Amino acid sequence: MKPVKRIEIIVDSMDLKKCLSELQQLGITGYTVIRDVIGSGDRGERSGDLLNDTLNNSYILIACDAEQVDAITAALRPKLKRYGGVCLISDAYWLKH
C-alpha cells in the first residue's frame, strides 16, 4: 500500500468545471466526480431533487502525494472562499493493484 492524501471537495455543480480545470492545470489527472450530492451546511439544505443541477452539489475525490496538497489547496481556496464549498484533507492508503 502507498500512503497518500485524500482530498474531498464539495462544490456547487455550476463551479465543478472551474475546479476541475484548476486541478488539470496543476497536473492532477486522477479524480472521481459524484454529481447530485445532497446534504446540509452553512448555506442550507441541498436536496438534489431539482429539475436541473443549478443548485445541486458535486463531490470530487482525489488521492495524491503529500507534496501536491499545498498547490491544490492554494489553487482551490480562492474559489471556495468566493463560491462556497467544502474541502477535507486526510491521510489514506492506496491499495495499488
Which secondary structure elements does this structure contain, and how are they paired or packed?
Blueprint: E1 2-12, H1 16-25, E2 32-37, E3 39-41, E4 44-46, E5 57-64, H2 69-83, E6 86-94
Antiparallel strand pairs: 1-5, 1-6, 2-5, 3-4
Short description, anyone?
The chain is an alpha+beta fold. 26% of the residues lie in helices and 41% in strands. It is globular, with a radius of gyration of 14 Å.
Structure description:
By secondary structure, the chain is of the alpha+beta class. It has a domain at 1-27 and 65-86. 26% of the residues lie in helices and 41% in strands. The protein is built from two helices and six strands; from the N terminus they run E-H-E-E-E-E-H-E. It has helices spanning 16-25, 69-83, and strands at residues 2-12, 32-37, 39-41, 44-46, 57-64, 86-94. Strands 2-5-1-6 form a four-stranded antiparallel sheet, with helices on one face. Strand 3 (39-41) and strand 4 (44-46) form a beta hairpin. The radius of gyration is 14 Å and the shape is globular.
What sequence of helices (H) and strands (E) makes up the elements?
A: EHEEEEHE
According to DSSP, the number of beta strands is 6
Outline the low-pLDDT stretches: none
What structural category characterises the helix and strand content? Answer: alpha+beta
Number of helical elements: 2
Widest β-sheet, arrangement of strands: 2-5-1-6
Radius of gyration over C-alpha positions, nearest whole angstrom: 14 Å
Quaternary state reads: single chain
Round the mean pLDDT to the nearest integer and report it: 87
User: What does the largest sheet look like?
Assistant: 4 strands, antiparallel
Q: How far apart lie the N and C ends?
A: 9 Å
Strand proportion? 35-45%
The level of helicity is 25-40%
Shape: globular
